[in-house]
Each structure stands twice: as structure tokens, then as C-alpha cells.
Amino acid sequence: MKQELIEKLDKKTALIGIVGLGYVGIPLSISYANNGYKVVGFDIDQAKIDNLSQGKTYIKHIPDSEIKNLTDKGFEATIDFSRATEMDALILCVPTPLDQHREPDLSFVLDTMDSLLPYLRKGQVVSLESTTYPGTTDEELKPRIESMGLKVGTDAFLVYSPEREDPGRIDFTTQTTPKVCGGDTEACQKVGMALYGQVIDTVVSVSSTRAAEMTKLLENIHRAVNIGLVNEMKIVADKMGIDIYEVIDAAATKPFGFVPYYPGPGLGGHCIPIDPFYLTWKAREYGVNTRFIELAGEVNSSMPEYVVGKITQGLNEHKKSINGSRILVLGIAYKKNVDDMRESPSVEIMEQLQAHGALIDYSDPYVPVFPKMRRYSFDLISIELNQENIQSDVCIVVATNHDDFDYPMILENSKLIIDTRGVYRGQHNNVVHA
Question: Given 93, 181, 271, 395, which residue is catalytic?
Fold first, then answer.
């Protein structure tokens, strides 16, 4: 069973099912299709299926041309999970958010797995790519698969291989970014390496699914902790009248022992603000208190409030108050040049400003209409950035530094700018650095 599946994967005759057609699933589908595999994409959102079937994108940094090329290569998108039985590989790329208590919410993973169970058969490999705590794959997925009479490692194969997508990045692709893979058994590991070996340039083998799960958490916790450190340094530097960006640039000239991280208005995205809490939650099961990780989380979570404080300071200096002031937020995606709104600190800043009585507008070329979100609700559309709109607002907040913004024009026409991203370094006349 194992050898037959490996041969199918090596010869590219295996059918690949990508479950979850979002920021991870679509690039992965493209990578498999470009490398000669037949790919079927599964999702519960009919609107996504319709778009893909028409060769249209719904992810800003992936153009229509790439989707059309994908469909031209035979890619199919469907909501019919019964077709999973046709697949030789099922790769799960679904969200793993936090619930209202900041604890792991595995409902997307488990509901998806439960939807696939009736259609599993011998000779398939299931790979989970969603970020999660160590133990998820063997504690949650393995028992479900074996409840269908399939012995993992003999009849079916189970691996964990965390996604490493960075939306909007152009220097690394899905194929050129090294990929970690851990199997539930030795046989599972060999199948997993075959699954990814043809579409990823470098596949890094680890000893278990738990090691792979922990690897993903370490990657993102490392980033969260270092951003927390530099955000705290920014606050200290600001009090001392020191330009934190000058300090970072100077420190970065050291050719060893230092990696530059940059401050901002808080953490956003589908990984870095969330993943540390998956480990802190699981660690409590072992009686471990992850104080260092949690402290970094506290610092990063407090940054929107810090930005609002700097807005208050800037308005006070102009003899204005937040209450009744019209404030334009530039950029509401969580990072530059993408349309991803997940956990965006910009939106938390908007909510806090509105709670203080501010009149909020936003401009974001990647988010023309404020989307439906779990925690936030704004009935707003992106306004055009022109001299008239900028001059009519009391305060401009640079929350996400998209390259599309005309920063010289904004500076020339603004009464007050709160810069959370360092785009106006060296400017002080009408700029407050936050």
C-alpha cells in the first residue's frame, strides 16, 4: 500500500485534493498543478468555487492570470466532499483561530476531517498544514481516521507539514520555501516526503508530527517575541527622544548575532498573533507556565492602545480632541500590499477611536469595502486618497504602509499624521511618530 502510493506520487499520477481554498490552499494548488499533478480543490464556500471555475481570483496578490492558468491545467473546485474518495492525497489547509477566550479553536480542522471521514479509503495520505499545538495530529486526526477501520501507517498515512505562506512576498514562492514534514509512523514519513518532494525544492524531515507542529510554533513565536521586544524598545526610545529606526539600522550593521525586527501598531495576520496561544494553552496541560511568550503577547496586544494615546497627544497639541474629530486610517490590511484582514491591528485602532467619539474613514486599495468580521463591524468603504479628502480630515493615521499610497502628497496636504510604520522618518513638523 505504501509503495504503491509513493510510486503514484513520484510518477505524478496521484490525484491531489486541497481542502480549504484560501491564502494557503490556492498557492499550494498552483504549485501542484504547475508540477504536473491533477488537483481538485475542496471548499464549503460556493462563491469561491464559482470564482475559481470562471478563472477569477479573490486573493489580491494572486492575479486572475494565475487562476486561469490553474484551471487550464485541469484544476477543479468543488463543494462535493464525496469526491475525496477519488483522491490519493488530501491536504488540509483550513483556519485555526482562537475562540472568544483566546483558546485554540480546532472546529474548522475537526469539522473538515469529520466531513471527509465517510469518503476515506485505503491507500490515501492525509496531511494537515494548519498551525496547531503539538499533539493535534496524533490525538485528534489519527483516532478519527482509525475509527473508519483504517490502520494509520499500513492502510492510510498521516503527516503534519505546516504551511509557510507569507502573502504578498515575491522573493520566495511555495515551491522555493523549504517545507518541514513529520509523519505519524516511519511509513507515513516516507509517504509524506514523496507527497511534497516533487513540488517543494527542499523538504525537511523531522521525527514526528509533534516535532513538526512544534517547529511551526517556534518559527512564529520567535517572531512574536522579537517584535514584542522591539515594540517595547520603541516606547522607551520615544520617551528618550531617540529614533528607534535609526537604532535598528545601526544595530543591523553588526554582521553576526543580531537580526533586525521593526515595530508597528501591533501584530496581525493568521499566524503570529495567534500561534503563541496554541503553545501556552497546551503547555498548561504539562504544568508549564510560558511567561516569556505571554509577556510578548501582552506587549504586542497593547500597541493599538499605545497608538491611540499618540493620536490623543497629537490632537491635543493641535488643540483638538478625539471626540468629534474626523480621522482617516490609511491601510486596514494587517500588512503592506495584501488584502488579508485577519487580526489586523488597524481595525482595533479604529474601534478604540470610535469608542472615543472619533469619526472614522479609511483608505485601502486592497480592501475596497470593509468586510464582515467576527469581532468588528464598520459600515464603511475605502475613500479615494486625494487632496480634498486628506485636507478635510483632522488626523491621518498611517496604520499599514501600502506601496500604493502617495506619501509625499499625503504629507503635503495633512494637518497631522500619526506614523506607526516609520514611513516619515526625519519628518517632525506635522508628524507624530507612534
Answer: 271
